[in-house]
Design the sequence.
């Protein structure tokens, strides 16, 4: 319930990926992402928006601390905007093809609202429906 209340007050282009309530530590942890890079200014703005809304006081009259953070680089890609942010990056991707899952590494070339164009080594470019992607993560190379 608190998740839906928080989603409703987020600024345009900001998405709530997760809410965890830790009653032992008295903390509500929110993970956000956005179409543009998430910086300290944005997390602060979202935190103030949530605090000023009264949602926390309503849900937790005894009080809870609020932590708002961005999605980490190891956060799986689920939404079209996440793929768009990572065009030209290499990802590890698991896809359902012919009823069976397969995993590979590929570069994101383009993104539509419902598909991702990828390029695997030695294979022609292909469009993958986002609905067919089981798991995708950006690979970090050093």
Sequence:
């Amino acid at each position: 319930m608190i998740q839906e209340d928080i989603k409703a007050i987020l600024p345009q282009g900001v998405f709530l990926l997760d809410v965890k309530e830790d009653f032992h530590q008295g903390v509500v942890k929110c993970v956000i992402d956005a179409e543009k890079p998430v910086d300290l200014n944005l997390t602060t703005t979202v935190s103030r928006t949530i605090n000023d809304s009264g949602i926390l006081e309503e849900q937790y009259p005894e009080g809870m601390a609020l932590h708002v953070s961005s999605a980490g680089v190891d956060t799986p890609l689920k939404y079209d905007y996440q793929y768009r942010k990572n065009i030209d990056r290499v990802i590890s991707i698991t896809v359902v093809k012919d009823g069976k899952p397969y995993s590979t590494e590929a570069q994101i070339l383009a993104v539509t609202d419902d598909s991702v164009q990828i390029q695997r080594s030695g294979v022609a470019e292909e469009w993958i429906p986002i609905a067919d992607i089981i798991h995708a993560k950006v690979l970090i190379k050093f």
The chain has four helices and eight strands. Residues 2-70 form a domain with the GMP Synthetase; Chain A, domain 3 fold (CATH 3.30.300).
